[in-house]
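Data card: per-record layout.
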Amino acid sequence: MPSTAWGAYKGITEVLRAKLASGEFPPGAALPSEAALVAEFGVARNTVRRALDALAEEGLIVAQPGRGRVVAEAGASGRSAQPHYRRIAAELRELIESGELAVGTRLPSEAALAERYGVARGTARQALAALQDVTVSVHGKGRYVKPR
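The structure for this 148-residue chain is written out next.
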C-alpha cells in the first residue's frame, strides 16, 4: 500500500473494486468488517471507511443495519447511473420545487435519509449539501427549505 493516507485510500478502493468485479464477493455477500480490513491493509479505520464510502457512492456496496456492508445486487446499481447522493438530492429537490416540501419545512435528517435510502450517513450528508441553494441549515436544528 502507498505510504500516504490518500494513496492508501485510493489503493484500498481499487483492490476492493477488483475483488467485487472478479466475483470474490458475490452480490448480497457481506464484506469483511472494518476491523478485518484495517488488519489486512495495515491502515487506520478512517482510511478504510473512506474507501468503503467511495464504493457505496458508486453503488457497488450498501450498508445494511445489523449486517454491515454488503455487495449490491446487480439490479441495484442499474437503478441509476448517477451516484446515490445525486439521486437522493434530485428526489428532494423535486419535492421542494413541486411545493410538496414547502418553505420552512424541515428536511429529513442525515440518519433518516440514510435509513430510508439504505446508504451511509456520509452519502446522505452529500445529498443535503447538494441542496444548499434551496435549503438553509440551522445549527443544532436541522436543514429547512428556504424562500426563493
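Known properties of this structure: Residues 5-22 form the longest helix (18 residues). The chain has seven helices and four strands.

See the next section for split statistics.
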